[in-house]
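quick q for whoever's on today - can somebody do inverse folding on this one?? i tried earlier but teh output was garbage lol. tokens:
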């Protein structure tokens, strides 16, 4: 049977690396190779794997140290250890710490393929071949950060667990919620989205729970609420932090009892809905201030997903800009091929405090005003305030300082990460984690 999935192989034995790669590729897997833990981290920063298969003994960081770093950045990625007989006790201990499994050298092809297949079933629940990418088609990204987020989302989607999506305004929380719905067993059911901040408080109860005829002044007919309309599907509650306390109590009952009572009704009606909520607000602070119920928070926050800001996934800006431009050209009947190189460079340099939504608005203004086949820098500057680029946020300033500091260290030490770690007063594992965070590879500085 032919498989699918991407495996990252890590071993400093070139012959074994080549042999394992041939075995996996013959079985239908896509294979990336690395000769060290450091090279593996660099490879993952460029392209996420579905399974990591690593030798225990490696030059520099060993397999267990690699596992610890990988689990911090890619918590849903299964890791399989290749171990000699002498390290079996260590491998058994590693399994108790979260390693998916281990293979004792020498092992045969059947054992290798069986263990990798088991890991893939864990990390990527079965989806029909023609649906493997359809569920996430609206999520435009090549970012490893987003790849990891989507891998977690795919695992969550096949369950009925409530999900809380966190992230700044404009990062695409509803897009992610729709992707979760499409990847779930409820994909053929309704997806009902409600913006709790956009509906006045006095109307939100009726909109969510429905009402009977005559329940209040103006209720001339019976109205089915949005929760009932989502029966058999997914209810997405955006800006859940803005829901009034009185309605939080009623929503908690829906989650606990799986039933809803319309305003003015004498009895409740059973509903079968999966709830996904989202917020850009700090719910824990709202709880401390008495503005959000703690019991509801735990009901909603069974699983949490954190959407990164656009400034943390800058490699996606060209993709998103071209995606929005293509949609807009079709809508407005225009023929604009793309952005001039300096215009795209300017787009990629901006802060985007409004995230993907702000980028989409800027691209729309550029498209509307464009009179040529390529959007020039002047139009981009007109569409987006230059003030965005002039003053970075505190977090961005710290991140840039940290990267500059690491680059300077690596230049001074000619890429010797051990010496650089000592100068920085950090242990080797922590130092490599910092390099990975900033997509830096120590070996690239050896010629400086």
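ok took a stab at it. sequence:
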């Amino acid at each position: 049977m032919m498989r699918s999935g991407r495996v990252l192989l890590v071993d400093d034995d070139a012959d074994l690396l080549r042999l394992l790669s041939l075995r996996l590729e013959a079985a239908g897997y896509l294979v990336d190779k690395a000769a060290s833990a450091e090279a593996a981290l660099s490879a993952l920063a460029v392209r996420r794997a579905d399974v990591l298969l690593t030798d225990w003994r490696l030059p520099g960081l060993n397999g267990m140290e690699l596992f610890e770093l990988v689990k911090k950045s890619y918590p849903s990625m299964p890791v399989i250890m290749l171990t000699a007989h002498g390290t079996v006790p260590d491998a058994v201990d590693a399994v108790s710490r979260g390693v998916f499994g281990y293979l004792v050298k020498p092992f045969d092809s059947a054992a290798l393929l069986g263990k990798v297949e088991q890991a893939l079933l864990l990390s990527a629940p079965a989806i029909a071949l023609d649906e493997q990418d359809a569920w996430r088609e609206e999520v435009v990204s090549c970012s490893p950060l987003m790849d990891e987020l989507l891998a977690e989302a795919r695992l969550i989607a096949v369950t009925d667990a409530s999900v809380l999506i966190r992230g700044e305004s404009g990062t695409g929380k509803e897009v992610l919620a729709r992707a979760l719905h499409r990847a779930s067993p409820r994909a053929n059911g309704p997806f009902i989205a409600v913006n709790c901040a956009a509906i006045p408080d006095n109307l939100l109860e009726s909109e969510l729970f429905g009402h009977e005829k005559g329940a209040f002044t103006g209720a001339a007919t019976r109205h089915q609420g949005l929760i009932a309309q989502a029966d058999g599907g997914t209810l997405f509650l955006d800006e859940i932090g803005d829901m009034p306390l009185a309605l939080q109590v009623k929503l908690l009952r829906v989650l606990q009892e799986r039933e809803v009572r319309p305003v003015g009704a004498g009895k409740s009606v059973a509903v079968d809905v999966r709830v996904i909520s989202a917020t850009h607000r700090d719910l824990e602070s709202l709880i401390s201030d008495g503005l959000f119920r703690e019991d509801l928070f735990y009901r909603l926050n069974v699983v949490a997903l954190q959407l990164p800001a656009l400034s943390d996934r800058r490699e996606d800006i060209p993709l998103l800009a071209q995606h929005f431009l293509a949609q807009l050209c079709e809508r407005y009947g225009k023929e604009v091929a793309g952005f001039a190189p300096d215009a795209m460079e300017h787009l990629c340099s901006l802060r985007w405090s409004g995230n993907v939504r702000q980028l989409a608005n800027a691209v729309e203004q550029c498209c509307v005003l464009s009179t040529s086949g390529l959007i020039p820098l002047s139009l981009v500057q007109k569409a987006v305030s230059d003030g965005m680029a002039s003053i970075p946020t505190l977090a961005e300033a710290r991140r840039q300082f940290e990267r500059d500091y690491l680059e300077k260290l690596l230049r001074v030490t000619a890429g010797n990460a051990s010496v650089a770690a000592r100068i920085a007063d950090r242990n080797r594992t922590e130092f490599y984690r910092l390099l990975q965070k900033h997509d830096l590879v120590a070996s690239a500085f050896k010629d400086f």
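fwiw The first strand starts at residue 6 and ends at 10. also The mean pLDDT is 87. so keep that in mind when u check it
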